[in-house]
Amino acid sequence: MTPSPFSAVPGLLHGADYNPDQWLDRPDILARDIELMKKARVNCVSLGIFSWSALEPEEGVFRFEWMDRVIDSLYDAGISVDLATPSGARPAWLAEKYPEVLRVDREGRRHAFGGRHNHCLTSPVYRQKTALIDGMLAKRYGGHPGVVLWHIGNEFSGDCYCPLCKNAFREWLKKKYGTVEELNRRWWTSFWSHTYSSFDQVDPPSPLGETSIPSMQVDWRRFSTDQCASFIRNERKALRQYAPQPATINMMWSFLDYDYAVLAREVDFVSWDCYPRLKSGNNLMVLSEACMNHDYMRSLKDAPFLMMESTPSKVNWHTVNQLKRPGMHLTSSLLSVFCGSEGVMYFQWRKGRGGSEAFHGAVVGHDGREDTRVFRDVAHTGEMLEKLSSLKGAPVDPARVLILWDQQSRWCACFAQTGLGGRMDPLPVLQSHYLALFKKGVRVDLKGMDADLKSYDLVVCPETFQFREGFAERLRDYVRSGGHLFHTCFGGVVDGDDLCWLGPTPHGLTDVLGVRDPDLDALYPEEEVCIRLEDGQCFRVDQICEYPEEVTAPRILGVYDSDFMKGTPAFTYAPFGAGGAWYLAARPEQKGLDAVYGRILEALGIRGVWPRPLPEGVAALGRGQMVLVANLSGADASLGLEFPLTDLLTGAPVPDPLPANACAVIRKEDLKHA
Ligand code: GAL
Fold it and tell me: What is the rounded distance in angstroms from the CA atom of residue 645 to the CA atom of residue 665?
């Protein structure tokens, strides 16, 4: 067994992004930081994420003494360091001397110095300069006992259209397709006479040029992902010569630019930054989305991950930057832990005085005090994490349900010009499926098309538009040998090249589902199409639905109840081999999907972790020997406990009703008798 990347820190991690380089003229503040960190039970900080100009103020002039002092003082105080490479933002001298490091946008404009996360990842100069400073950091701190993790760059994102990237794209295409004829064939360039006679004619997709070849757009995303992966590899190589500590990159929320399944291979553990749009009142949906992302991050490596950033109070970039309501900080933090996070980390430790994030929430505010609501919330969360330290390394309850979430398929759907006119991103559909299961306390994994299906009782394909070669066969085998599939509309349409499969659709599954050639329909907001289930329950279709040409599935569980489709099967079940498959022809409103899942889970005997139906707005998640129950409903929620259960967080009985935003942790053993 490989050792856990988090083993150097005793207990679950608790800490924040720490930017002492903003306070180098205030040693009193730096000393106070350590004192306050101890009080807040911080045991790890992410250091130096944007420190390049403090580390190398002029080209080739390095200043590490300040960082030596910070790392040593943290170490003396028992606080570990997740040390960053500074590649997320570059110093002005670098941009001035080497303009090739600046990104060129889709309209061909080279940007001026400023901002962050906006360098050309292809630029040899940028790669050399980052490798140089990374190597120096690794040499100096790779052997420091206080440095336990590496944080490569920050939130990699975006693409660049400079001549270097254009060339690299052409080389990437040559490698993939071999000949330009093959590229033409697989991009379907005979359409509108867009046939290329040389790779040199291919420019990246741009609003000023080519946007009418979806296969090209998908390839551009794949290329940009590969450039980012090779940039990360370059940084890792520089670290690895001297620094053995595990490394990560911090990923983002439901992110479209790159395929995280590819980037996850470049790191030792997955981490991500979680900023749900919390509000007063009911947060079930918002936090279900956060948990969906946590579950995706865990699934990327089938291993515990780290919530690398979250806010202790509010952010400054939502449209409404609301403070966390009382109770919510602990509850939202523990949800991450019960989805498999090995800790709770914040952005950021101390508010800066200026810059664009001066008003972003931080553990320590401009007043520098510890007797604040936010500081108390953070310290309390630290204390609770210490109580839950036995969860470190513990697996989350195994998922019996897999939701197929494949970034490449998502790209193909996003670029498809059909249905809702450029708004076919399946993300809202995914969220709605996840929510239906979250409400029932059912654990889910989220993986791409390469996932091993056999350990799951149910595989859900929510608008899985692309079926890459071999996927349909794997699904068939899975069902034939006893698995169950839940397939929805807008699935199995295009192949690995984003070209439409010829022949009946959903590709390769028509006999498994007992459904052939559904035709996609889209609805105006004022139009109402309903589906009626066998028991008479009716629900509305949300925006898209499809009309199958032929249905041979033996069990018709629901039919369209309106418009020209009235009476057409819309929810079906077909046994196949030792298993079977459900088909749902539409995106339904949430209550419809909840009802559909009710039937599917019942048929498969899949139960949630809570011993009875969860009260409205309450979530429950299991990890190790414990269950977290969290009231996200915005109001008191009666749990209907028949006898008292002990809350491991307080040692007192779990309050029933559970107040709004509160949570409790219960021993699984105790729950058996509840
Ligand atoms: C993250 C970023 C941090 C900080 C934070 C603010 O996306 O990694 O550096 O900007 O957002 O919420």
Answer: 10
Within the chain, all domains assigned CATH 3.20.20.80 are found at 13-163+210-391
Given pLDDT bands bounded at 50, 70 and 90, which one contains residue 422? confident
231-267 residue pLDDT tens: 999 999 999 999 999 999 999 998 999 999 999 999 9
Mean per-residue pLDDT for 272-276? 98
Q: Which fold has domain 13-163+210-391?
A: TIM Barrel (3.20.20)
Ligand 1 contacts (CB < 6 A) are 154-155, 273, 275, 309, 315, 347, 357, 360
Model confidence band, residue 643 (pLDDT cutoffs 50, 70, 90): confident
Contact 590, 543 (CB under 8 A): no
Fold for domain 401-604? Rossmann fold (3.40.50)
Distances (CA, A) of 566 to 139, 252, 534, 549: 71, 42, 14, 14
Mean local confidence (pLDDT), 555-575: 96
3-state secondary structure of 614: coil
Ligand 1 centroid to Cα of residue 116, in Å, is: 11
- Give the residue-averaged pLDDT of 410-434: 95
CA of 347 to the centre of ligand 1 (A): 7
In the residue annotation, 309 being an active-site residue is answered as: yes
- What would the mean pLDDT of 142-159 be, rounded to a whole number? 98
To test the pocket of ligand 1, the residue of 46, 309, 311 to mutate (highest count of ligand atoms within 8 Å of its CB) is 309
CA of residue 640 to ligand 1 center, whole Å: 40
Using the atom order of ligand 1, give the atom closest to the CA of residue 155: 8
Q: How far is CA 516 from the centre of its chain?
A: 33
Indicate which atom in ligand 1 lies nearest the CA of residue 316. 12
pLDDT of residue 673: 74
Taking 3-state DSSP, the helix, strand and coil percentages for the chain, each rounded to the nearest 5, stand at 35, 20, 45
Instruction: Provide CATH 3.40.50.880 ranges for the chain.
Output: 401-604
pLDDT at 164: 98
State yes or no: pLDDT of 385 exceeds 70. yes
Q: Which of 56, 235, 289, 309 is catalytic?
A: 309
Which protein residue's CA is at the shortest distance from atom 1 of ligand 1?
Answer: 273
180 neighbors 196 (Cβ within 8 angstroms): yes
Query: What is 618-671's CATH number?
Result: 2.60.40
Tokens 């946008």 belong to: 105
Q: Which one-letter amino acid corresponds to residue 111?
A: H
The CATH 2.60.40 portion of the chain extends over: 618-671
Would you say residue 1 has pLDDT above 60? no
State in Å: Cα 440 to ligand 1 middle: 32
